[in-house]
Amino acid sequence: MALTIRIVAGSTAPIYRQIVDQITRSVASGELAVGESVPSVRQLARELVINPNTVAKAYAELVDSGFLETQAGKGFFVAKRRQVYSKSERLRRIDESIDQLVNHAVTLDIEPEVIVQRLQQRFEKNLKPAGD
Amino acid sequence: MALTIRIVAGSTAPIYRQIVDQITRSVASGELAVGESVPSVRQLARELVINPNTVAKAYAELVDSGFLETQAGKGFFVAKRRQVYSKSERLRRIDESIDQLVNHAVTLDIEPEVIVQRLQQRFEKNLKPAGD
Amino acid sequence: MALTIRIVAGSTAPIYRQIVDQITRSVASGELAVGESVPSVRQLARELVINPNTVAKAYAELVDSGFLETQAGKGFFVAKRRQVYSKSERLRRIDESIDQLVNHAVTLDIEPEVIVQRLQQRFEKNLKPAGD
Amino acid sequence: MALTIRIVAGSTAPIYRQIVDQITRSVASGELAVGESVPSVRQLARELVINPNTVAKAYAELVDSGFLETQAGKGFFVAKRRQVYSKSERLRRIDESIDQLVNHAVTLDIEPEVIVQRLQQRFEKNLKPAGD
DNA sequence: GTGGTCTAGACCACA
DNA sequence: GTGGTCTAGACCACC
Questions:
Q1: Which residue numbers in chain A have pLDDT < 50?
Q2: What's the CA gap between C57 and C17, in Å, rounded?
Q3: Residue B106 and residue A21: Cβ atoms within 8 Å?
Q4: Judged by CB atoms within 8 Å, which residues 51-80 of C form the interface with B?
Q5: DSSP A79
Q6: Which residues, 6+ apart, have CB-to-CB distance to B74 below 8 Å?
Q7: Which of A97, B20, C130, D54 is the most exposed place for a label (fewest CB within 10 A)?
Q8: What pLDDT, in 10s, does the model give residues A68-99?
Q9: What mean pLDDT comes out for the span D36-44?
Q10: CA angle B19, B21, B26 (to 5 degrees)
């Protein structure tokens, strides 16, 4: 399966974050199977026309959070899913994202009910791979 | 009504963002009425013991997003609320944040129900300034 | 309290690892108190005569594993201790170190009893800060 | 006695290290007797389906550390065991590994008793090749 | 060929 | 001043 990463130049998110998020998503959704390889650091860097160090930084973070594994001289592979972070740490991290969303909603003057509704729709879409 | 801003030192959010968010919320909730004045840049900087540049940056962003307006030599006032963005534009923007949250939830393997519950709690806390 | 980091040039451990290990130890032992600041990236880089990026890499890892926190424009501070990794993840990680020790012991032809004895001595020394 | 080497693909340890460690253990445990031959570089490479260079590198290190010796045109043989390092030197080296383990344990907040217990289990598993 | 580390130096955001 | 991101390019270990 060809993994395609897309970098948005004007985004507020740094390049390495965009790579992390997209691979994270592909792994979590099962689109990338366990044991499957991802493009080599240099190859992905060539494809995206960015510096190899930037890709390496993204991959290092993915190894640390348990999504990828590295084999010296071979490349990076999708790791067997495991629970890296403690429950409290996971809640702490998700609360940061929730706070950001709440702030954004208040700033844009969008009602909580609307947010919750759209969020639930998004979750449903996300959990049915067919609808992606 | 006296506007009280609280800066959390350990927060990941930059100070200027915290100011922007709190004033935004006060305006959205009606705590700060249209036409009312906010503290001067220097006064707020003294109160919070931070650099005036930081306050100025926050106020500039609030003017830009239509929450405040400036009257030369007089100070900053709560603007007659105008929606800077169209409804569809606002929804487009909030959907980006929602997608980020969903992505993060999938990554951390946290159930949608937990997210929705914590999100609603957070909204309640935030929209009642008394509980802050 | 002056934090002193020592880099051993000939070591097999990369520079950034040596920094991580030493700060980790200082924090875990309480030598560095919660809320205390560590040297700025540039300052430590100047002191050790290494590239700032190398220090930044070490600090980033310490933030990720929950030992430090960053405040934009201010610096890095010792974070309140928390349990970042799940129990299974912590055991997985310590088992890697244990396997290394076992391999090393077999290679050097040192009896298991000797290893266990020296290990226990080291733990005792370590748990009495006075003896450090 | 047929020497069987097992390479674990997903391991963090490089392949040549795994070969070195396993032969080292077989010699230490007496499974491989002094004077006995080990498979030729090419044969072992074929068996394990790896690059002959990798096997050659492992054998070179084993010769260097005194476990094997080479007889031109004949192959590699288990050497009369000599201790390359003095006792104090060996203890100094093993203490480095022990310190690393203690450091790691403190970092991960794992009790000394747990470490000692897992270490002993690991020793038992490793010294009985049958249980590997 | 692969990844891992390190340097030098640039530009931006934040205080 | 602080940290955060990115680039260019080097050298090493491993396969």
A1: 129-132
A2: 9
A3: no
A4: 69, 71-73
A5: P
A6: none
A7: C130
A8: 999 888 899 999 999 999 999 999 999 989 98
A9: 88
A10: 95
